[in-house]
TrEMBL record:
The chain crosses the membrane at residues 63-81. Keywords: Membrane, Transmembrane, Transmembrane helix. This is Flp/Fap pilin component. The lineage of its organism: Bacteria, Pseudomonadati, Planctomycetota, Planctomycetia, Pirellulales. The keyword Transmembrane applies.
Amino acid sequence: MPSGMEVAKRSAIEGSDALVTSRATPRQPHTVRVGPLNPERIVMKNFAQKVQRFLTSEDGPTAVEYAVMLALIVIVCLTAIRSIGTNATATFSEVAGQLGS
């Protein structure tokens, strides 16, 4: 039969929502208290698990690849629009000059 400390360690390792603390006193060298986690710790634990799951899944790198491709497409489009705009301005100026004379 496992001791109380082994059960507490096992529950902490298996990811239960229990807080395991150890405190040494002169009379009781290893007192272990197991209690429920407070809401803030539960939220942080869930957040950390979601971040870990996101980083280990393929969704993270795929999202980054799409963002890089989108940025490159936007840069190409802006460059093309600027070039077309410059050429169009020159053409309209030339036509306006010929019409005015």
